Amino acid sequence: MRRMLTVGAGLSTSLVLAGCATNAPQDTFQPKGPNAQMIDDLQKPVFAVAGIIGVIVTVAVLYAIFKFRDRGQPIPEQTHGKPALEITLTIIPALILTVVGVFTFRTVFDLAKTSDTEMIINVTGQQWWWEYDYPVQNEYGITQPIITSGQLVIPVGTKVMLRQTSRDVIHSYWIPALNGKRDAVPGRVHLNRIEADEPGIYAGQCTEFCGLSHANMRMEAIALSKADFAKWVAGQLKPYTPPAENTLAKEGETVFVNQCARCHQVNGMKRADGTAIIAAPDESVVSGAAPNLSHLMSRNTFAGAMFDLLNKSCRKDVWGADSESFGAKYLQGVSEDCLNQSDLRGWLRNAPEMKPMYVNPELLTSTGGKYRGMPYLGLTESDIEKLVAYLLTLK
Amino acid sequence: MFSTGSKYFFGITLFGALSFAVYMLLIDESAIGATALLGAVAATALLTTLVLSTRDGEAGEAGVAATEDTPTSSMWPLITAAGVVILLAGTITTTAVFLLGVVVLLASLFEWTVLGWSERASSDKAYNASLRKRLLHPIEFPVIAAVGLGVIIVAFSRITLAISKDAGAVAFIVIGLAVLGAGVLFSLRPNLKRGIVIGISTVGALGIVAAGIAGAGAGVRDELAEAKSEGHYTHQDCGAEKSKYFDKLPLEVVSSTASVIATVEIIDGKLTARAQGIPGEQQSITIPRSNPSSVMFVNKDQEEHRLVANLGTKVISGDVKEDVVLCTQMIAEGAEQVLILNIPKPAMAGKPYTLTVPGLAGQSIEVIVP
What we know:
The structure holds 2 protein chains of 2 kinds. Chain A is α+β, with helices and mostly antiparallel strands.
């Protein structure tokens, strides 16, 4: 008994102490923007009230269990109905719930506000990654649509409206530090407002079970100062620059065109005859989409933000940067020295081995031969070498 | 060792296990079907164990002699035979008839089995009958009520489809009032003769069913028949409008109108778009690749108009190309219709996708597919 109590006390203490962690990127109690702050302002008092009531009820129950435990005493007189007590015990919870309800509704309506939107980003979920497209918004220098994935880049202090939908099943978008979760449903557009107070990286995760790799469907919101955001936009609008002739990267471009461009779009890439190469993921993938890899190396993650494009030391450098220097470090993108060669090469070598996906050819009859993720491509080590060299040019 | 009840459940368990084996080996290896069958086997195995452990409620152990009387008359052999006939008829007609046969056969076999089991429970016929009722009434009454309600609903739907919209509304009100009146009468006069209550209920139910059969025989009203024959529910022809009727949900997808990505309107001869979540009027809308997106077209002009989506060209063969165009039907002032766009690729440079309205020269909404 004593040993059980000791173990129980140890586990309880560990759980309580775990709640004090400061380096928890998906902690709902560390808001970093006004929307998340609104939720925090609501949930903390509610948790406090619920906690106090919970403690009172638990103590009362334990007291009754201990005090009136069976010691062979006769059964006490049985009475039915104490109207005054019952009415009191009904009115008190009703009043508490009414007060909670008023504040909850106010918060819900505040979070649903759209009239003060300053920036629009379309967010589309599919198994198992998020796509972000920025419609033309000249006031932010977005003169052409920008399309990216894995990392959502926003300017700080800007009320951003995410217009969320899905291409296949229901997903749910949640970056705890910036707002609550909102489902992305096929055929529907759900609105989700986010805003970050300071530059930094804010982690999130799909929170609606969406299939085999649901747990690996992650996302990161990158908040940049307005000046840095303008630089990021300018970088995303830069035209495609083909690799120099007679380089490994140029050979990698050929491999990319033959193996990858069927699904992955790189804006501005052209064939030898000058015609644009338009990817057709709808012919191979159930969701009809694959990540657009234009400016891939301006992102820090790949494969649905499951893997880092930066190696550990460089990533630590970016994640650990203070808000003043964060933007500059993030905008450096991924250089050859900072590239996480191991995971990227592993991914190109055999993607399904690194991330569970429905890509076994024997199980594709139900989808008409279409994949639900990146398939095994059978690339040679030479092809991988060339591809890595080419991908490094996509900045 | 094996009592009557345990034999019954043991038989079902064995049958379920055999079905599971046949299903896995010969029909399908899908996890869903196998799990369902295995779950059924586990459930009946549990019941078998329970019945065995309680020795079938100790009916036999108590020494109550099982009846040696001949079985009472029953309708279930007849219904079982009908089920077999329907099932066989279904094998050469339609799947629905086949499934009906399966349901009738299984239900009648179940009823017959339980009846036989209850008749041999003891020598007391009244007790045996109560045993059967206790077991089957909780199943029979809801099923009969659901089937009866389904028959009434189907019959009533046949009536409303056969008569005009206005007459349908009147019929709905009249029949509803009649049902309400009968209910009020029964509740206010609880001592009403049983025969009268049964008579009124039977006449009312039979009346609706008879009218439903008549309605089914007469077929749907002319405008629905015409709409169906011309494929109004699916066609999106961009040529001359032939049809007199149209449906506001061209693809019969109710959810498509639940959330539109943009609403395109003609007001005072001007074409504008409003995208969900974006304040103000737009002259371009963004639609994600390969994602069916609903665009609602609202005509607020006095003339009839249709919305046309110009989605580039597609290669038919070799150098032969064809314009990809989708249209709503011509709709009158105040009407609205959804156009569902599923665009797998962005537009070629210099040839943007557009939404236009024939007759409104120089106006278009650009459709951007990133």
